[in-house]
């Protein structure tokens, strides 16, 4: 399960590829290690065009899974898109793309961190994500907080990832056309993107 990734490209690069209309991230610094429950940049559709903004990583958990304290650490990934828990957020209004330059999976055998990217130059790509505004208890000491949350979809791993981690890999978008499709297409069409990258499209770095 992907619980760690990096985003080290510039705001300008994100804005260009994702055709961003409004940038709300301020002076966005390189983020070499992004963990679940941390803030990270995302792009979604807004009333006047696409918005680049910071969201908190971890979508709401089902209420039935919460402990007595009500604390919800958030779900980092979306695997079963047929689940009723996720279907409500799979329409265009709740889709986003998550810029990244590399992502990490733990080796199934050694548990060591293994990083993947499109190539050694760490080009910009995007995870296919969903988002929502939500009130929850992320940390008991803070009590209920209002947050804008996101997570990204996973799929079967390609051969490169499966050699390290056999369970899943993120759904990765590598072109403007794929970003456009994910952000605006009807649900069934958008979900055709929930597939592994072709063999050879990722490298271990």
Task: Give the ordered list of helices and strands.
Answer: EHEEEEEHEEEEEHEEHHE
- What is the strand tally? 14
Count every helix, treating DSSP H or I runs of 4 or more residues as helices.
5
For the termini, the CA-CA separation is: 18 Å
| Helix percent band | 10-25%
Pfam families: SRAP (PF02586)
Enzyme class: hydrolase
InterPro entries: SRAP
Keywords: Hydrolase, Protease
Structural features:
205 residues; mainly beta; hypothetical protein yedk fold; 5-stranded antiparallel sheet; 5 helices; 14% helix; globular; SRAP; hydrolase; Abasic site processing protein; EC 3.4.-.-
Write up this protein.
This protein has one domain (4-204): hypothetical protein yedk fold. It is built from five helices and 14 strands. A hairpin with a 6-residue loop joins strand 8 and strand 9. The mean pLDDT is 96. The two termini are 18 Å apart. The strands form two sheets. The protein has a five-stranded antiparallel beta sheet with strand order 3-1-8-9-14, with no helix packed on it. A five-stranded mixed beta barrel has the order 4-5-11-10-7. With 205 residues, it is mainly β.
Sum this structure up briefly.
This protein has five helices and 14 strands. With 205 residues, the chain is mainly β.
Secondary-structure map with pairings?
Blueprint: E1 4-7, H1 11-18, E2 20-23, E3 31-35, E4 39-45, E5 50-57, E6 77-78, H2 84-87, E7 95-100, E8 102-106, E9 113-117, E10 125-136, E11 145-155, H3 159-162, E12 169-170, E13 172-173, H4 176-184, H5 187-190, E14 203-204
Parallel strand pairs: 2-5, 5-11, 6-11
Antiparallel strand pairs: 1-3, 1-8, 4-5, 4-7, 7-10, 8-9, 9-14, 10-11, 10-13, 11-12
């Amino acid at each position: 399960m992907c619980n760690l990734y990096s985003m080290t490209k510039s705001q300008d690069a994100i804005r260009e590829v994702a055709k961003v209309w409004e940038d709300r991230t301020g002076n966005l610094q390189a983020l070499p290690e992004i963990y679940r429950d941390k803030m990270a940049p995302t792009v979604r559709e807004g009333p006047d065009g696409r918005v680049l903004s910071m969201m908190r990583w971890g979508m709401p958990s089902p209420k039935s899974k919460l402990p007595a304290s009500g604390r919800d650490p958030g779900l980092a990934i979306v695997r079963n898109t047929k689940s009723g828990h996720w279907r409500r957020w799979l329409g265009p209004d709740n889709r986003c793309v998550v810029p990244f330059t590399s992502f990490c999976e733990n080796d199934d055998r050694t548990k060591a961190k293994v990083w993947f990217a499109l190539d050694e130059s760490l080009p910009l790509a995007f995870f296919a994500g969903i988002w929502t505004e939500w009130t929850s208890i992320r940390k008991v000491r803070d009590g209920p907080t209002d947050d804008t949350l996101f997570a990204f979809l996973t799929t079967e791993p390609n051969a490169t990832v499966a050699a390290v981690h056999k369970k899943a890999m993120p759904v990765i978008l590598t072109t403007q056309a794929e970003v456009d499709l994910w952000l605006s297409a009807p649900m069934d069409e958008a979900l055709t993107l929930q597939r592994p990258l072709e063999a050879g499209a990722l490298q271990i770095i």
